[in-house]
Design a protein that fits this description.
The chain has a domain at 12-123 and 217-224: Peroxisomal Thiolase, Chain A, domain 1, CATH 3.40.47.10. Helices cover 35% and strands 17% of the residues. It contains 14 helices and eleven strands. A nine-stranded mixed sheet has the order 3-2-4-7-1-8-11-10-9, sandwiched between helices. Strands 5-6 form a two-stranded antiparallel ribbon.
């Protein structure tokens, strides 16, 4: 009847596709999107896409190409389909999935193609550093020469001091990621590293070292979200924000955006956190891993490194993280990362994880961050029995 609220649809991940993260010098950003999207479309079978959403952080700055939604619609032969680009710094991919989720949940769309893409290797280091710094304040932080990695280095130093945590303990996070990445077919760096390897690697912004910092890379990943029943249901997709600048925050060591997004997600999903079998976290730097897990309540304050050392977050541990290598080993093509995470969760829940399979996984989560926990997007997915 007129005036009644439209019934909310369930949201399923109908299919997924990705390309390995790497260096694609010979391919354009449009070609990367096309390859990932084509795999998802082919896997979905007979499907009519009625909306296209692209997650990307800095295509205009990095490749001088904007209007990515219309570009993808064109190269896919879908001109006429509604299409747009979503940007939320390094959380652009997760936010694109969030917008796709809302599109289907509202009942306005049946099949939404979500693609995350970034082409970073074409940019020299200086320009890439400036591009990543756009996640913080141009007026204040960038103006004094602070880089994104230097902000995280300050955060890591403060964390180690407040909780009396040795650097070696936090370095278990990149060790876990690389162990998983060694057997991940789409990972950028498919080799394990030891704690000594991380410790001996050169500092890039002390205490962050080369082997504890997520690398740049080119990549694209895609999912089709649908109201038609599939093997994986997206139970929740929630997002929250923090103050933009670190110096504005009462407690920089509290990831308030992640805490809020995760709390909303488990409430909407009607589960408790102990029901989550694995989580793809935003492990850009060791301190981000630690503060994210603590904000979501999986570790006590100051204890995430200790839990990592104990094996809690290993692939065969209590709560596997970064199951295909995470940002650190799979690679971090920033605007695409959040979509890679959802594809990886889909693989786990459909038992397509191969050597990286989490045995018996029924419920998974992803957490994608833009800035220093300035925007956080959390998704919770479950295998449909």
């Amino acid at each position: 009847m007129e005036g009644e609220d439209k019934e909310m649809s369930k949201v399923f991940v109908r299919s997924a596709g990705l390309i390995p993260v790497g260096e694609y010098w010979e391919k354009s950003i449009g070609e990367l999107m096309y390859e990932a999207a084509s795999k998802a479309i082919e896997s979905a079978g007979d499907v009519k896409i009625d909306r296209i959403i692209v997650g990307n952080m800095f295509s205009g700055y990095g490749t001088h190409q904007e209007h990515l939604g219309a570009l993808l619609a064109s190269v896919l032969g879908m001109a006429g389909t509604e299409a747009l680009k979503v940007e939320a710094a390094c959380a652009s991919g997760g936010m694109a999935v969030h917008e796709g989720y809302l599109s289907v949940k509202s009942g306005e769309y049946k099949n939404v193609l979500v693609v995350g893409v970034e082409k970073m290797k074409d940019i020299d280091t200086g320009h890439l550093t400036k591009a990543l710094a756009m996640a913080e304040s141009a007026e204040f932080t960038q103006a004094v020469g602070a880089t994104f990695i230097s902000l995280n280095a300050l955060l890591m130093g403060a964390y180690m001091q407040r909780y009396n945590v040795p650097e070696d303990q936090l370095d278990y996070f990149p060790v876990i990621a690389h162990k998983n990445g060694a057997t991940s077919p789409h990972a950028q760096f498919r080799r394990a590293v030891s704690l000594d390897d991380v410790k001996r690697s050169p500092p890039v912004a002390p205490p962050i070292r080369l082997l504890s910092s997520a690398p740049s890379g080119d990549g694209a990943a895609a999912v089709i979200l649908s109201s038609e029943k599939g093997d994986v249901e997206m139970l929740a997709s929630e997002t929250a924000t923090n103050e933009l600048m670190l110096f504005q925050r009462d407690n920089p060591l509290e990831f308030k955006a992640t805490k809020a997004a995760f709390a909303k997600a488990i409430k909407r999903a009607e589960i408790t956190k102990d029901k989550i079998d694995f989580i793809e976290i935003h492990d850009a730097f060791p301190v981000v891993s630690a503060l994210s897990l603590e904000a979501m309540g999986f570790s006590e304050e100051g204890k995430a490194g200790r839990d990592a050392e104990s094996g809690k977050y290993n692939l065969d541990g209590e709560l596997p993280i970064a199951t295909f290598g995470g940002l650190k080993a799979r690679g971090h093509p920033v605007g695409a990362t959040g979509v890679y995470q959802v594809v990886e969760a889909f693989y786990q829940l459909t038992e397509k994880g191969g050597k990286n399979q989490v045995q018996g996984a029924k419920v998974g989560a992803t957490q994608n961050v833009g800035g220093v926990d300035t925007t956080s997007v959390v998704h919770i997915l479950r295998r449909v029995s």
